[in-house]
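protein under study:
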Amino acid sequence: MISVQINLPWGRYHAHPWGQNPGRVQEAEWPPSPWRLLRALASAWFRSHMAEIPSAAVVELIELLSKELPEIGIGKVSFAKTVHYQPNYKHSSSDARFATYGRTRHENHFAATAQPFYFRWQSSVLTASQQEILTELLEHVSYFGRADSICEASLLTNSNELPDEIDWCKPCLDAAGKPQKRITQQCRVVFCPNPADFKITDLWLRRNVQCNSIDTPQHLVNQMLSSDMQVDGGIIVSYQMPDGWPQKWVVHTAQTKKRSNAAPSTSKGPKVAHYLRFSLQCRIPIVSKFTVPLAEMFRASAIYHLCKVYGDGATSPAIAGKDVPQGHHNAFYLPLGHDVSQPGVITDLHVWCPMGFTKTEMDIFLRVRKLKWGNGRFPVNPVLIAAGDLPPSETKLSIGGDTKLKSKVWQSVTPFVPPLNFYRGTKEKPKFKANALPEKQLFDSLKAAGLNKAVLIERVPLQEGSFQPAWDIVRAPEGDGIEHSACFNDTVSVEIHKNGTDTTSSKRVRRIGFFMRLTFDEPVSLPLPAFGHSSHFGLGLFAPVPDGTTSQSNEA
């Protein structure tokens, strides 16, 4: 017996039933079709063996799996959909000057399930070498159905590993053992390889396709569009669903027009990630002086979607930073660049939260599709590219602990803005307090975060870091009569985060920031990635200096 497990970390399976017009689909394909599994295995081969034709062993394995219709193990499921609108150009027949843009509605149906699903072949047996090949292929299967159906596939060698919540969908066979169709409430149609007539090339090519030697064959989808989605080697089979289908297995969410007065908190529940990385897709470069506005916009958009989905009373301490214990427990939104050839340009948004994100909060972040940055002409499109518990070492983000990134020397990536104004009066006539100087406030911030180590704090001269293109330089006041005028040397004007309780008339608040260098006696890990004012929005972020005895422990 052969059993394959498909786990969905995001709990969603996106796939349309085979051969149906997407505009007329009522719900997602369920149970998942065995044909998709064979296509995923073939795709895994081509991914792991670039520019190679499938080996004889792989052909034998995949065609062996097609000789028997597998049973499909499923758990409880809920059907849902998302809707988006595609711009549609409407040309005017009378005059092109009166052409307008409309929009076309698209529905993306998916099945939501908390349990993995399974394929089980009762009669088929694999040799040891075939098990190794199948295990290797399954390791390269990263999605199932549409590309946003992230999955983890594995071969089960022990049938006792199956959970109790799983039951089996079985193919409908006639008296002669041939697959058949049945139209009943207890059956659903599934697209399968034809056990009597299947070849591995049917997964990507129509049979008897003629093409010139210098041309590549037409894509399989384009071939099928002209033949009512018929494919060689495939067959529609009815599967008998588990007992109690659909009442016992399909979970329906009650819809009520009146929202509860209780404010739900989306931060309650199991944590699925602490670190997220978004690629910021934009047609023009975003310079680093827009760090805070960009981080604020992403957070505000997430809060907007939170209230839109769960009501105005919904809360998320992790996302919004409200109703959390004193300290830095909520999310840090850290826009950064990874392209060394473009210094001072933001390309990614790193989100790290000590208290972690629930699956619900992950879904809220995925709803943030567009940030109308600047005048909105060139919007920023955040795309999630990584999620986990810890930032990867190449991000150079320090979040504390003995096993994290360590260095003797840390230097500012974004300006440190003292939490308290370090001078009174105007910049032309300032008055300073010794215990509020920027270096003293940075030391206090490190100590408050739990890093009580001896440290040398120095300012980085602006010409040394080439910060001029990215930040607005503050000109130091001139004159011998100004006390401590050196405090304004090597400073930049920084836009900071404005709290909702701030009653100042100005929409944008600017403060003076400093690029600092921290030198310790021994390699240390900073307990937080950023310090000072607006540290949760990307200011005061430090990174290890390459020649500053940087180390990465083997446990990280």
User: Anything to note?
Assistant: The chain has three domains: 2-240, 271-395, 407-544.
